[in-house]
Model the fold of this input.
Amino acid sequence: MHESLHFLGHAHLKQVVGQRALENARARKQLGKNGAEAFAQAAAYHGAGARAEAQALCERILQYFPQHFDALHMLGVLKFETSQLEEAQALLKRALALQSRSPEAHYHLGLVQFALEQYNAARASYEFAVALKPNFPLALNNLGNTLARLGLFGPAAESYDRAIACQPDYADALCNRGISLLMLARYSEALTSFNGCLALQPANVRALNGQGLALVELRHSDQAIASFERALAIKPDFANAFANRGRAFADLGRYEDAIQSIESALAIDPELENGWMVLGDVFLLTGRTEDAFAAARRAIAIVPDSAPALTLMGQCFATRGDVEEAIAHFDRALAIKPDLEGTITKKLFLLDFSSADFAQSQAARKMWWDQIGSKVAPASPVIHQNDRDPERRVVIGYVSADFRAHSAALCAIAVMRHHNHTAFEVVCYSCSPFRDRVTEEFMQIADRWVDASRLSDDELAARIRADKIDILIDLSGHTAGNRLAVFARKPAPVAVTAWGNPAGTGSPTTDYVFADPVMIPPEVRHLFPERIHDLPCGVTLDPAPAQFRSSEPPCLAKGHVTFGMLNRINKISPDAVRVWSDILRAVPGARLMIKHNALDEAAVRDSIIARFAAQGIPVARLDCIGSTSRDGHLAAYAGVDICLDPFPQNGGISTLEALAMGVPSVCKLGNGLSSRVCGAILTSVGLSEWIGDGEAGYIDVAVKAAASPDVLKALRNELPARIEASVVGNPVAYTKAVEDAYRTFWRRYCVSA
Done:
């Protein structure tokens, strides 16, 4: 029975196979020789957008011609177009197994792999396509997209360049090139690329947004706003354009407009990391620290490894005074993106508030040079055309973002008020859009005033060269708004860094740093790329108005000593809190006045109080005072008997102004420049006995002074005159020393090779 059935089955199978062979022959005849006629029809369907018909015909072709390359290729494309990505990839790989030298098939496989987020595989596919067909703009553009997705923005830009060389009117490639150049911080080139795209496609919103971002980075924020608004007129729900417009508003100081624009962005897309980032920055600029913390947390929750978001969080901690936590966040950000300039600058600034010594500080500054400065510095020595007459009138250029009511301006304006304009021409390059009555005075003092706030680094460097500046002075160092990247370009024959942040730049294109033997002792000077030039002291200050001085220390009337710290709260280190608490415990009834504008915010104030509470100091012994006018700030010294200089970051201008108001300061020397400024000032005016030897010595000086009201009264009346009689407190004499230094620098340059 089994055999019979087997025989009958075999006979039936022969009949079926025969029938199928006949049908296959008829089908092959209908499909044309090798399926060519049917494929032509499938291609026509595809070209007309009839995908279902094209797919059905390709599948029919492959049923009878399984090795039909064109049908496999087209079916793979059709599957890609209908988001059937795994099937598309399998079909295209089958096609390439038949014809491995098809650039189009490699290109389409790359499209599929990119959509599957297989970026390394996509890169290989596009590279095969380009190797087989070098003039293939689509493949070159998509190779650029893939390289950009892999974070390889330099090679991406090169790939876009090749695509544009093949097809100069390739708008998408121009736009994509601009985006990669933005990521490379090549902002002028990026702007040119976006402009080229927009000349071809004026309504390209990606290009308009990119154009705006390039303009923001080039400091043309007013023009940037116009670009973002053009994009929003075309695409009203473009969240990123709203956020970026907010950033441009903030750069112009239009904070309310900035917040409204960013909130519009977040209403459209609550998960827009960029929106929360910009909002957090604006909150910090407007003193809303806790709101900034909340924005930073949202940004990090959206993108946990975002270097800018981690930087924002670090800056929030810095504003609150938590230096260690802030630096830890900056380090996390730099581990992700080592060349993030704003993060490097913030870390460098904050290192001066830490226990970093000279070696650590200079190593960090070298990091700035390696990651930022060296990349824009001239490849060979710059030849300047300035007249090398050593005795002629020298043109001095001061560069600062702080020509306004700011502590960094107090020393600079004291010098500039007393310049000899016969021997020196004074040019000011103001790098901030903010102006106030102090700005107006700087403008009157200067022989020439240049608003550099809307000039890019290249534009400012070109302006400095055109102005024939002989000696260029950096007044910002590694602080907000600095233009050290301009100094790296060496636009003037001689460069000096002074006063604003005098810890050195780390840049070999800056020739000198002003200091004194206490601030930078001889044994560490070899660590600096700049040459150290000693002045009588690192800072100076105009005499304080006499009407704010009091003739007696307040302890005589109040019956208790009031210590004071009228300085940045982020200078209050954990060690300072501990030592000051020891002093308060050792001086019965003593109080501590802390004054800084950040204390306007309740959360910041509570944080400071909590730090002392942890040391057992009740809130009743603390007086926290927020922002006041400059006159109000000086008047506050009438309520202070003894200033406690913070450490490891000392007071500078604040120390000198306290002495000028008759209030002595207790300090201790540290192992970094920022921890030696107060000691340098006290030494220069003959008050070295107020410098404690370590923490124990610091406490001893403060406690003994608190027990000596007669000494405090004598100093109250004696110090202002003593300060004014010293070079450090006499801006006329101090400025003469500065000008002698400038003349020395210029003569030295004139005889150099």
Summary: Residues 2-31 form the longest helix (30 residues). The chain has a mean pLDDT of 92. The two ends are 113 Å apart (CA to CA).
